[in-house]
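INFO  loader      accepted 1 record
INFO  loader      residues=71
INFO  predictor   begin
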Amino acid sequence: MNQFNPKKLLNSKWTAAVTKNKEKHFIITELEINEEGKVLYCTMEAIMSKREFMIIWQDLRNTSLWHQGWK
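INFO  predictor   done
INFO  writer      dumping tokens
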């Protein structure tokens, strides 16, 4: 399980545990935060292709999907 503070996700770097479409390294480019200050979801960008997609931030805790940093 990856441990991190969800409010510090912006601009954090991630490596996909399983490479898809030759995309392995990602960066968090945007956070959606509600009125109470809780993170709802975030936008990730693939470093090579610049493809963006939304992800539920809790999925980043799953080490079978994501690793912190670029490896």
